[in-house]
Amino acid sequence: GAIGGGEVERGVERKGATYVMTEGQIEELRRQIAAYAAICEQLAEMHRDAAAQQESLAGMRNMSNVYLLPPPPQVPRITKQRWIPTSMQLQILEREYSQGIETPSKQYIKDITSALSLHGQITEANVYNWFQNKRARMKRKRQNDTKSEAETESRDQKKANKETVRVQIDDPD
Amino acid sequence: GAIGGGEVERGVERKGATYVMTEGQIEELRRQIAAYAAICEQLAEMHRDAAAQQESLAGMRNMSNVYLLPPPPQVPRITKQRWIPTSMQLQILEREYSQGIETPSKQYIKDITSALSLHGQITEANVYNWFQNKRARMKRKRQNDTKSEAETESRDQKKANKETVRVQIDDPD
DNA sequence: AATATATGAATGAACG
DNA sequence: CGTTCATTCATATATT
């Protein structure tokens, strides 16, 4: 019995916001992910085939390092506003951070900026700011989490209440 | 593969026709889709490059339309629950602001949050954001008003200007 | 229903 | 570094 069960999960849930999705939305997500996965697989296979036949095709050789090579995605802006990282740039930055790069050195910033510029307009200042903001916001998040954990240390009841509220949401159809 | 996974399903809790997801789960989904999108983009680009150079590669041709068709770049329509202040909460907040509280201290935010929670669900972040938005929008309004005062342009011109700003952006290649 | 606006939230950049 | 500002994104609500 799921409803009101509160047997939600391991320590996954935080006291942060929760989100509600409909079946249709979940389905849509699955479809998108499946579609991307299929396309990636096909493309990758095509490249393997092609590479096997024609090893000297320019630009194709070191596919293993997919993230570091190719294309400039979209830089449509004429009016220079604030930097908006492309999904690729973000992905790379997030990965670097998650792998322990929290306060990159000047040289590191130079390098990664140069790598990221293959995926869109970017400056060293952008990268510097990104890491700075990341650190600050991660830290604040950790503090909030820790604090609210401490608050509810002996009060899981409150949490239960919160869960209960959501249960009331029900089906319009 | 490394990217796919069924973790989503495990964590999703069934509740009538809606599901509740944690921030972490949503984040994970977004990451997955962003990752696939970025990889597809790269592979497609590489493929185009390669195809341009070597059009008659066996095994490549009959699949060459693969990347042309599907992937919807749209990110999931996840309905995020955002705080909607009750009229009572709004009244109190407006009053505080009008009485000179523009940038409340952390402690002040704590206090007011706790007071406001008597009138409905609310978090410190909600309060913080409210004041932040209030400041920004008040400032903007003041600036607009002042500017239109100085200008002899018609009143409607002002709004037209605002619209015009966006028009410049565009044109990828 | 489709578009426009109001406003909560996220985030790049700047400040002290 | 911590905090705040400025801009943008996303969603709820209003308007047509």
TrEMBL record, chains A, B:
Kindly indicate whether the keyword Membrane belongs to this entry: no
Region annotation Disordered: where it falls in the sequence: 138-173
- Per the record, DNA-binding region residues lie at 78-142
Instruction: Keyword check for DNA-binding, yes or no.
Output: yes
Q: Where in the cell is it found?
A: Nucleus
Give the record's GO CC terms.
nucleus
What residue spans carry the Basic and acidic residues bias annotation?
143-173
Q: What is its main location?
A: nucleus
Keyword entries, A-Z: DNA-binding, Homeobox, Nucleus
**Signal peptide stretch:** none
Top-level lineage group? Eukaryota
Q: Where is the chain membrane-spanning?
A: none
Q: What is this protein called?
A: Homeobox domain-containing protein
GO molecular function terms attached to this record: DNA binding; DNA-binding transcription factor activity
Question: In this protein, which residues make up the domain named Homeobox?
Answer: 76-141
Q: Which organism is it from?
A: Canna indica (Indian-shot)
